[in-house]
Specification:
about 280 residues, mainly alpha, 13 helices, about 65% helix
Length: about 280
C-alpha cells in the first residue's frame, strides 16, 4: 500500500535525523500523492509513539525510531517506483486521459530517461498507463464504472478464496487479526485480506490482487480519513473474522461481500470530489 511505503520512508528519514516537514500537504506533495495516504501513515506513526499531535494540531517527533533500515542505495529503486506510481495514480483518479511526454516527465520526477522508461514499463503492468510506438505513453483516467467493476470482481474472487482456503486457515492467526481490529484501534488492519488470498493458493486470484492492488488501495485509503467509515470497517472486519474462526463459511462470505461493497457510495463521492477539485470547481 502507498501508506505503508510512506510510513516506512518517514521512519527511515526520522532515524537519519533528516529535516522532515511534518505537514500533511507538504508531505503529500513530496510523495506525489493525495493527503489521505499520508494521513494514514502519520496515524500509524502516532500509534507507534514516533509522532505526536499537539493540542493545536501540530505534529511533532515524540520518539526517534530505532532499528530502521537506512541503506538508501538498496531502497532507492523501490522509492522511485513508489513515488512515480503514486503520482500517476493521483493523476488517473482525476478522471482524465492524458499524454505523458517523456521530456516533461523527466523534469517532473527529476530522473533520467532510461530510469523513467524502466519505471513506466513496470507500472504499465497495472494498466494505469500504456505505450504505443506511435503515440508514446498515455495515462488512463479512472472512471466510476472502473470502481464498480473492480469491487464486483474482487468480491467474487475473495468469496472463492474463502472456499479454497477453508482447510488452511489457522484459528490462531485469525484471532491475531481479530485482535488487531479492536474497536479502540485508530485504523482497521486490512492485512487479513492478503492472508485469506494467500491461503487460497490460487495463482490467478493472487495475480489479480498483485496487479491491481496498488491502484485500488490508494482509493480505499480514503476510508481512513473518515472516522465513521473507519469505525464501520473495524466492525465489519471483526464480523468476518469471527465467522471465519467459528468455521461459519456461509456467514463469513455474506459478511465479506457486504464489507467489500458497502462503502461504494462513499468512495464514489470522494472520486467525484477529487475530479471536481482537479477541474477547479
Amino acid at each position: 500500500m502507498i501508506s505503508d511505503f510512506i510510513e516506512q520512508d518517514l521512519q527511515r528519514r526520522l532515524a537519519l535525523d533528516e529535516d522532515v516537514p511534518l505537514n500533511l500537504r507538504t508531505l503529500a506533495k513530496e510523495y506525489g500523492t493525495s493527503v489521505n495516504p499520508v494521513n494514514t501513515a502519520v496515524k500509524k506513526l502516532i500509534d507507534k509513539n514516533i509522532l505526536r499531535r499537539k493540542a493545536n494540531g501540530r505534529l511533532v517527533v515524540y520518539q526517534v525510531p530505532k532499528n530502521v533500515a537506512t541503506e538508501t542505495d538498496q531502497q532507492h529503486p523501490d522509492s522511485q517506483l513508489q513515488i512515480v506510481q503514486n503520482q500517476l495514480i493521483n493523476w488517473s483518479l482525476q478522471g482524465e486521459d492524458r499524454v505523458l511526454r517523456e521530456e516533461a516527465m523527466e523534469q517532473h520526477f527529476q530522473i533520467g530517461r532510461t530510469a523513467l522508461r524502466r519505471l513506466f514499463f513496470q507500472i504499465a503492468l497495472t494498466g494505469i498507463i500504456s505505450h504505443s510506438s506511435r503515440k508514446g505513453w498515455r495515462l488512463r483516467g479512472f472512471k466510476e464504472q472502473d470502481l464498480t467493476d473492480y469491487l464486483n470482481v474482487r468480491m467474487n474472487l475473495e468469496l472463492l478464496a474463502v472456499d479454497l482456503a477453508q482447510d488452511k486457515l489457522d484459528r490462531v492467526i485469525l484471532q491475531d487479526y481479530l485482535d488487531k481490529n479492536r474497536d479502540s484501534m485508530t485504523l482497521p488492519d486490512e492485512s487479513f485480506h492478503n492472508y485469506l488470498i494467500g491461503c487460497a493458493e490460487n495463482h490467478y486470484i493472487q495475480s489479480f490482487v498483485d496487479t491491481h492492488g496498488p491502484f485500488f488501495w490508494a482509493i480505499f485509503s480514503w476510508e481512513d480519513w473518515d472516522p465513521a467509515i473507519t469505525k464501520l470497517a473495524l466492525q465489519q472486519h471483526r464480523k468476518v473474522l469471527r465467522h471465519l474462526i467459528a468455521r461459519r463459511w456461509d456467514e463469513a462470505k455474506t459478511a465479506l461481500a457486504d464489507h467489500i461493497l458497502d462503502n461504494r457510495s462513499f468512495l464514489l463521492k470522494n472520486l467525484r470530489q477529487l475530479k471536481a477539485e482537479s477541474l477547479g470547481k
